[in-house]
Design brief:
The chain is of the alpha/beta class. The chain folds into 4 domains: 16-30 and 100-201, Calcium-transporting ATPase, cytoplasmic transduction domain A, CATH 2.70.150.10; 215-282 and 605-782, Up-down Bundle (Calcium-transporting ATPase, transmembrane domain); 288-318 and 468-603, HAD superfamily/HAD-like (Rossmann fold); 321-465, Calcium-transporting ATPase, cytoplasmic domain N, CATH 3.40.1110.10. The chain is elongated and about 125 Å long.
Amino acid sequence: MVRPDAQAPARAGLSGEAAAQRLLAGFGNEVSDQSSRSLWQIFRANVLTVFNGIVAGSFALLLVIGQWQDALFGFAAIGNAVIGVVQEYQAKRSLDRLAVLDRPTARVLRDGFAHEIARATIVRDDILVLRAGDQLSADAVVLDSEGLQLDESLLTGESDPVDKPPGSEALSGSSVLAGQGRARVIRVGDDASLSRLTAEAKRFSLVNSEIRSSLNKILQWITWMLLPVMLLVINGQMQANGGWSQAITTGAWRTGAIGAVASIVAMIPLGLVLLTSVAFAVGGVRLAREKVLIQELASVEGLARVDVLCLDKTGTLTEGRIVFEAVHEVSSDHVRGWEQALGWFGADPNANATARCLSEQYASGQSLSPISTVAFSSARKWSAVSFDVEHGGEETWVLGAPELVLTSDTPRTNSTLEKAAALASTGSRTLILAHASGALRSDPPHDAQLPLTPVPVVLLTFREKTRSDAGRTLAYFLEQGVSLRIISGDDPHTVAAVARDVGLDIDKGFDARSLPDDQELLAEVMEEHTVFGRVTPTQKKEMIRALQSRGHTVAMTGDGVNDVLALKEADIGIAMGSAAAATKAVSRLVLLDGQFARLPGVVAEGRRVIANIERVSMLFLTKTTYAIVISVVFGSLLWAFPFLPRQLSVTDGLTIGIPAFFLALMPNTRRYTPGFLRRSLTFAIPAGMTVAATVIALNIYATVSGAFDPQAVRTASVIVLTLVGLWILVVTSRPLNAQRVAVVLAMCAGLAAVLIVPVVRDFLDLSWPPTRPAHDEPGHRDGRRRSD
């Protein structure tokens, strides 16, 4: 086995043969592509369930005995399964396509020459050749550096460029902003820092949905009740057909089986699960038109429940770029030429992101020819340039951190430093432009020294560009009772300044380096403070957990890989359109155009969906309630079930299914409050008991009087059930408007058509008007016990 050489040659890099041996020995940069969840697991979770088994068995039984007319309920079950499988498979594909690195190739030294190779073929001890614009594909240690600066914001959240001197580590996912250098690869493949973060992101999870969890809880309750009720109903059906022996001998068990299937299927709210998925899907389509991508349908509901919104600063509240803010003159000598000097600094090809902001404002010095330069370095915190003066001599301009450029102890420098500190305390990035006579002294160049007495000329302030829509959006959330937390890896003063820029009344930020490790204490800090700076990716995740431990529903916005763990931990993760691929893959929502102002519309859509689903759930749970009560009562009294499955399919469609579809898609601005399940059951149980009582009372009257044949009793039961169901529909549709009244009237017309149109009436085995048997017909009193 080949062992990597920790002292691999730095000048020529690895030989092609040595690299091939390392690749074969398993030291390559290939990342394992393990699926987050297998297709079989998704299929099993959505198809191989208790309810689907019962429904499928009932469906097959009806087909076997030739009663296909009564098997219509099977299509709703198929729809539920298909929607569930498709939804989770799409989430799986998003996770499996998780890719963090933007560049497919890397530049390495092989046999003394630089080669572009595939990212996966990088091996440990390869020498990466880094230039501006490159993205590191593996973890490495810097061997040599010429002004090498990396952007680590995707990993750390800090937007400031980081200088990388020899010996420092450069992590995968970082981008080269300025300078150049070489670095030896030390960690590859799954061991690289970004790969470990990606593996954590690929863990499968579903959004925390109160509607989904409430429905699951209801289905669990029904599961426990189903078996005993099913046995009771089957026994009642057999007894109503002369007992088990006679029913089996005469074949009457088929009629009993139809009634048993009708009662069992009526207890399962199949349509509610289907309609919930449809409502979420329609909400997703509506938001897609507004350039909001819903990666999991239940996220539409989730954002309507959010009461704490955590915001990453860079890329969310700000556009992720530095802009020049203002110039503040501090010299009374009126030194000439400082505008041209700033123009040169802005146009310098090796300028960092802050200096490049000057190019638009100051363009007059971009054509100047310097006699010597010193590139910016985070170790020095300054850059400099020397020019020839028109009438002989030389001059030098220095741009950098005031406290490192102004080293002399004079009244002028002291007052300038005080002014710079005051500007920095507002959150602005502050630089000084100073002037000195003479040229730069540097031998060698990286040991360049400042002129002896640089004189301050102007102070420059820079600020991150805030999004124009951030202020309005945050104001909306505050009006809606959603509290805000701004979490960033940048300096707390800078973060607080951005918060003030977007309209928040913030005095100062909290430094996350002093956050407690204990979650209870951390939760107290999170409740008391709004702005946090110097936050690490792991801390972001723990801060989300701390808020959730206090009962909050938390949404998190972000755009960097450093936000991945927090976005995944949050109840709702929201990625900006400019976010890294990994960030988008684990987020529930993606703002495709990066417009923060889209979020209020998402909240409004979520409220519409959840309010309408709560409305229709009352209808479906009412049906489940009366189905259980009727099944228990009729099974206990050994009576035949009063409905055929096809009749229940029609009554369900008129009183629940069709109107629920329209109600679920209508506008609804009611603000969400927790307690979906409690409110639904509080309405559904009394309403269901009322429906059951009317049907039971009708059948008791028919049995005691013996005045009607079984078909007439079934017809009367269908009419009573539909009329009471329509009354419940009116109650749940309040407040009524023209649209809802039209839906109710259309369902009444549907009931009339069912009774009047001969083809429909015959298919449903109804008699209209009801028929009365002759009183002298032998055995007419036994007719209630017999089922046709």
